[in-house]
DNA sequence: AGTTATAATTTACAACTGTAAACGATGGTT
DNA sequence: AACCATCGTTTACAGTTGTAAATTATAACT
């Protein structure tokens, strides 16, 4: 079976990021960091921890009186899934421009850029001359104009 | 002022796509298309139309007994905003890989690819050798390891 | 003018989210 | 043994989302 990616909400991402970055943590550590970074009350962090455990994105490991929270889903896999999911709702025709906008505004290392260049180069030969719009169901690909 | 982008939910995107693609439409046309594409009941489409009007993403123009629903926000601008928003929750360090995954799995025209190549090439000179993780608040950039 | 089809608006309702307080259990302290 | 600081769990509560039925308004038809 594939990596079981879980639906993670915006705020829950913030919790996951810390754990992905630092490894398994106690709730008190998490809470401290997230109060600092997000301004959350301790109770808020606790709520998200509970929900993430219920969703299966985190697993608690008893350690003395507290728990260490371990991520069960991979960061890269989760990111890939979230991004793919979002793009699936967007018009295919506009994806090129959207990626262009994104790449323009995001921070990339020289290495990243080289990798992307290569991926693009590899993709070029099989690329179509034009991408068609996939916003309409098959039946409706003809003109419909009103107004 | 900038283009006023609106928060559009997953399902609402599907409504907007049709209007962005075909231009202003009557609710009956929309409902037919979305029943076809998404399997929605007419009432469901109506609900989303109402919400999108309330959110200001659509504006109804009376036309006889019905309304034509016009998009007030641009498709590209909305896509750019949605994608940027998502990426803002992701670890900077992993964005390169995420883009790579995305580019690998998405359909791009030769033209798109060329544009992206150019954007990347232009970005290369000023690109850092390494991107640092931005998942922790400033204070916490040192080691924290437990477990 | 009365009836009917249909368009728009209201209401419904459960699940998910953001945000957090309240409560109960438990290990550490006096 | 009694108390206190915490940790985890429950409860709270409003707003959003997905999904749709019910109701109301209204144009068109008879």
From TrEMBL, chains A, B:
InterPro entries: BlaI_family (IPR005650), Cu_transp_CopY/TcrY (IPR014071), WH-like_DNA-bd_sf (IPR036388), WH_DNA-bd_sf (IPR036390). Keywords: DNA-binding, Glycosyltransferase, Transcription, Transcription regulation, Transferase. Pfam families: Penicillinase_R (PF03965). Coiled coil: none annotated. One of its GO terms (molecular function) is DNA binding. GO terms for biological process: negative regulation of DNA-templated transcription. Belongs to the BlaI transcriptional regulatory family. This is CopY/TcrY family copper transport repressor.
């Amino acid at each position: 079976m594939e990596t079981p990616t879980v639906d993670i909400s915006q705020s829950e991402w913030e919790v996951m990021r810390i754990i992905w970055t630092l490894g398994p943590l106690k709730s008190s550590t998490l809470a401290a960091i997230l109060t600092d970074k997000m301004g959350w009350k301790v109770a808020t962090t606790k709520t998200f921890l509970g929900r993430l455990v219920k969703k299966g994105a985190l697993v608690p490991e008893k350690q003395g009186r507290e728990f260490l929270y371990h991520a069960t889903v991979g960061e890269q896999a989760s990111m890939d899934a979230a991004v793919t999911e979002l793009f699936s709702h967007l018009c295919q025709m506009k994806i090129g421009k959207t990626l262009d906008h994104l790449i323009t505004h995001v921070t990339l290392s020289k290495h990243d850029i080289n990798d992307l260049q290569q991926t693009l180069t590899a993709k070029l030969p099989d690329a179509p001359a034009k991408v068609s719009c996939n916003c309409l169901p098959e039946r409706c690909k003809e003109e419909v104009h009103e107004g």
